[in-house]
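Typical record is below.
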Amino acid sequence: MRQYIFFAAMVLAPLCACSNNPATTWATPPEPGATAVAVAESPAALAFRVVTCVARTPLLIVPAAASTVVPFSKSKGGSGGQYLLSNVQDDCGPPYIVTPSEVANEP
């Protein structure tokens, strides 16, 4: 029985140490750490962007065509071609790499 309690304490202790009080702010990594995290995240961010661009862009053609016939009333992306272009720009456009300033500003 003691082994289970010890094991549970060893598993839960790091989780409790990482918990964050909602009133506190997140720690900002120093510049060398932010650069290292940005270098490590860039390939994953680029791969995710390519998959999102290839998979989502063809799916946007149908709502863009439908919104040409019946325009969206309060869409940030506009209607019709504007909707398609704004979403394609968001999915396929820059930034292609993660910068240290983006890492330092993450919530």
About this structure: The mean pLDDT is 76. The chain has five helices and no strands. Residues 29-104 form one domain.
